[in-house]
Structures are given as C-alpha cells and as structure tokens.
Amino acid sequence: MRLLIIEDEKITRISLSDILKREGYEVYSAEDGEEGLATYKSMRPEVVITDLRLPKLGGMEVLQTVLSLDPRCKVILITAYATVDTAISSLKLGAFDYLTKPFSPEKLLSILRNITLLYSALAENAELKNRIEILEDKTIIGNSQIIQRLKETILQIAHNDSTVLIEGESGTGKELVARALHKASLRRDGSFVAVSCSSIPESLLESELFGHEKGAFTGAIRKHVGYFERANKGTLFIDDVDDFPLSMQVKLLRVIQEREFMPVGGNANVTIDVRIICATKIHLKKRVEEKLFREDLFYRLNIIPIRIPPLRERKEDIPLLVDHFFKKHRAEDKIMLLTHEIYNALKGHDWPGNVRELENIVERMIALSFSGTIDLSVLDLSEKKRGALLKENYGDYDSFDEFISKKEKEMLEWALDACQNNVTSAAKLLNIPRTTLNSKLSRLLPHLKIH
Ligand SMILES: Nc1ncnc2c1ncn2[C@@H]1O[C@H](COP(=O)(O)OP(=O)(O)OP(=O)(O)O)[C@@H](O)[C@H]1O
Ligand SMILES: [Mg+2]
C-alpha cells in the first residue's frame, strides 16, 4: 500500500516515514500542502496522512481536493489537541480518521491495518460481485441460425406486453429466454417471478397464484400475497403451463383478459400490471386436442409462440456453449486445451437433457481436473441408452430418484389434504416423525406454507 505523509515538522515527518517504511509500506512525503497535492497527483497513494496546519495549503483543503480526485482515497488527519473540533468536522467531510498529537505510532499502524482489511474486503466483494454476474449471466449463447433468430425475436417482442408461449424440451433454455425477455423489456426494474405449475398441488394453486386473505380457509393464518401480485409491474413466468389444472384454467384466462382477480376469501378485485410468459415442454396444442387444455386459453397464451429446438438440432452451438460453461465455472484457462476431437465427441452425443446436460458434463469435466483429454465413459455418453431403457419400463421417469420423489410427493399431498394441512396430524397419519415430515416438505414442496 502506498502512503503519503504531509507534515511540516521535519522530525515528525522523518520519524513517521521511517516507522512506516519499516512496516513495509511504500512511503512518500511532503512538507507543505501544495507539495503534498502535487505528490498525490503524481503518485496516487491509497492513503494520505496529513497534518491539519500546514504552510501554503491547510490539511482541510488537502482533504477536499484529494477526495474530489478520488473518493476512495483514505485520508487521516493529524491535529493538535486544540483543533479537535476541526478534526471532527473533517470526518464529516469524508476523512477516514484523525489522530491528536502526540500519538503513538502503534495507533497510526492500527488505523492502517484497518484500511488494509477494508481494501481486501472491498476487493473480495468486487470479486464476488463479478462472480455472481458471471453465474447469473443471462446471455443466450449460440451461433446457429436458430439462436440468432431467437435473439432477434426477443428484441423485437420485448417491448410489447403480449403473452409469450415458449415451447421446448427440458433444459433447452426456456427460463433463460424468459429472463432475457424480461431484461430486454421496459419492465426490467420490476421483478421477474417464476412459478412452476407442476410443483404446486392443485388444491393450493389458487391461493398460491392469487393469494388469500387471513382466515380464508383452515390454515390461512395470515394474509398471503400470491405470485401474480408479487410480479406486479414485472413479469410472471408460468412454467409447465401444460400441467395447469383444467379446473383452474378459466381463472387464468380471466386474469389474462381482465388483468384483475379476486384473492381467495377476498371481497375486492386486485388489479395488476404484469407481463405473462408461459413455458411448456410438450406441444400445448396436443393437450387441447386431448381436452385437457381449454382452447380459448391456448389461443390467449399462444399470441407469440417461441419454439426452442433441442440441442441435437443445433449441434453447431456446442463449441461456443462449452467455452461459455468453462468460463462460467472458472476454468477459463483450460479452454485452450479443448481440441477438435473433444468438440466432435461432444457433438456426437444426442443430448436428451439438452443444454443443461451439456453444462453438467462440462462441470464434471472441470471437477475431474480436465487436462486436455477426456475419457468418453466419464462423459457418460451412454446416457441415452440408459434413458431409453428406463423409459421403456418406467414411462415418465428419468431416474430412480425422480420416481421415488414423485411417489413421496403424492403421498405427502394426500396426507396433508386429508389433515387440512395440519403437519402434526399428517405426520401421525403417515406414521413418521413430524421433523422428518417437515424436512421432506421443505425439500419436495418448498412453496407450501403450512402450520
Ligand atoms: N443458449 C444458451 N446459452 C447459455 N446457457 C444456456 C443456453 N440454453 C440453456 N442454458 C443454460 O442451461 C440451463 C438450463 O436452462 P433453463 O433452466 O432455461 O432450461 P429450461 O428449458 O427452463 O429447462 P426445464 O424445462 O427443465 O425447466 C441453465 O443453466 C441455462 O442458463
Ligand atoms: Mg425451466
């Protein structure tokens, strides 16, 4: 750390300077205000230690000028006892601290140690912010025509409030596109609220979406603000809209048309201003044909349809995506080790889990200290075969865990329903400890607010 001492008393100046140099600081010194400022401008030290009374230019002027040049600079004032008042007002002007003469060098060193700590905390903070930005990076990567066109469409439709329906297999980037739309719209300062229909039991969906008043039903111990209201002035992303229960679809249609709704147990309509973006993994029209989805609602949602093709239909995006994920997961230095053979091996896979699967594989490569070669078995490119076998025998389930979770969830929902959402009774009914039930609920049904 670089320090500048401005002090007209020669002995103090030299002895301070010696002490600080011995501590390892890079020290500059000046004997009056003008020389001090000139040194500051050329050396740009992080800390200025200045006497208050100085020839030519006083310490207060030095303080103000330095802070106007760099508000982050830390200025410590040295003052005689009689001028403590001035020193205190200097703090108001932005001085970091002050010392009254005579002071022990240890006192100054302790202030300097605090400044060092502060600087390292700030640096760490900046690093964390940067990291968060990388992790939350909403840029859509891809140089395929499909992705280029998708990005253009996003810019074209971001500004109007029409409902958008995004269709795409799991992991193709539906939520990413929805967030990008929100960020590109005039609503960007409002909230982006995501709700997944498939994770909310039908019996709770209405109060989760529209909120409820206190006492609206057994268990409604306080007023609850629903997803629609939370997204006011922003964007509501309704994921897995194909799972939206038929019985509730008319309510969704109404809120989309009227932009108002009635909370459960409420007596006045709530008006909202939200943009609605829905996502579906399956072709929604099919649900209409199966009479599981209202046709009028389908047309309302389908005003602007966006289809994100699976990754296997745009394999040319794979190299850019791989590089992007190496950066995102802090292995930027390893990108140069990626060869054509590796990209080609990755292009050889069909990616049933799409971009999410690719990202997981890249993370695994990095975790296994990627050094330029990959063992294809590590990449588990037989994933597709495994998936096919499971599908053949267990229809809708991608894994053992998914099957078990689904079954657990079903039973928990049933028990809660049977016990009017009373956890203690539900735990008794299931013959499991209440704590076990609670932890299962927070894992499997995290949105539930129960008592
Ligand atoms: N084109 C892309 N560029 C960069 N990252 C992407 C891209 N597409 C997807 N991703 C990343 O892949 C992961 C999965 O994307 P996302 O959650 O948006 O998929 P999804 O379609 O909503 O999946 P699901 O249907 O399973 O909910 C995220 O981490 C996302 O950032
Ligand atoms: Mg999603």
Write the layout of secondary structure elements.
Layout: E1 2-6, H1 10-22, E2 26-30, H2 33-43, E3 47-51, H3 59-69, E4 74-79, H4 84-93, E5 97-100, H5 105-135, H6 145-157, E6 164-168, H7 174-184, E7 192-196, H8 202-210, H9 227-230, E8 235-239, H10 246-258, E9 260-261, E10 270-271, E11 275-280, H11 284-289, H12 295-301, E12 304-308, H13 318-328, H14 340-347, H15 354-367, H16 383-394, H17 400-418, H18 423-430, H19 434-444
Parallel strand pairs: 1-2, 1-3, 3-4, 4-5, 6-11, 6-12, 7-8, 8-11
Antiparallel strand pairs: 9-10
Structure report:
By secondary structure, the protein is an alpha/beta fold. It has four domains: 2-133, Rossmann fold (3-Layer(aba) Sandwich), CATH 3.40.50.2300; 145-309, P-loop containing nucleotide triphosphate hydrolases (Rossmann fold, 3-Layer(aba) Sandwich); 312-394, Helicase, Ruva Protein, domain 3, CATH 1.10.8.60; 400-444, Arc Repressor Mutant, subunit A (Orthogonal Bundle), CATH 1.10.10. Helices cover 49% and strands 12% of the residues. It has helices at 10-22, 33-43, 59-69, 84-93, 105-135, 145-157, 174-184, 202-210, 227-230, 246-258, 284-289, 295-301, 318-328, 340-347, 354-367, 383-394, 400-418, 423-430, 434-444; strands spanning 2-6, 26-30, 47-51, 74-79, 97-100, 164-168, 192-196, 235-239, 260-261, 270-271, 275-280, 304-308. Helix 13 (318-328) crosses helix 15 (354-367), helix 17 (400-418) crosses helix 18 and helix 18 (423-430) crosses helix 19 (434-444). The relative contact order is 0.07. The site of magnesium ion has 3 residues, from helix 7.
